[in-house]
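Why predict the complex rather than its parts? Because the way molecules touch one another can change local conformation, and only a joint prediction can capture that. The input here totals 171 residues.
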Amino acid sequence: MPGGRVTLADPIPLSPLSVSDSPEDKFREFLEIRGEKLTEPRRVLIRQIFDSHKHFDADELVADLRAAGRQVSRSTVYRTLRLLVESGLLRELRLTNRTAYEHDYGYPSHDHLHCSACNTVVEFRNDEIRHLREVVSREHGFRPSGHRFVITGLCPACSRARSPRRRLDLI
Ligand SMILES: [Zn+2]
Ligand SMILES: [Zn+2]
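Output of the joint prediction:
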């Protein structure tokens, strides 16, 4: 069913990195350089976002905030998300039908599989992809700082649901 929530498949294969500064400290530092303050709504947002690692979009964040009884305006959510991406705390993830966000700071670099039917996002790490990034960058005289790689398709459950004939073949 399309349009479902973006969910992080279990079990989570990656564990967070240990970092000395909290996301809140990092964000305060970033804002101070720009002459801005870590206002109360921004503090509420950063706590909500860094409570758990998942892939979320702006609408889900607004819904989560409401469910937690935290009042932050939609425009503050959008503007703060942009700032969190600029500061390197969050990473933007362009999926087929939406833009999702996830922790970048304090989390190992990884890539994704995205199920176009149920919206499940699976994380994985692959050394060959990182090696390829180095090789291609070197060929072009590039100094890589990141990359995006998303495999789109059907997860095992959706794949089974859509091909009953193949399932019969396997019996
Ligand atoms: Zn699926
Ligand atoms: Zn991820």
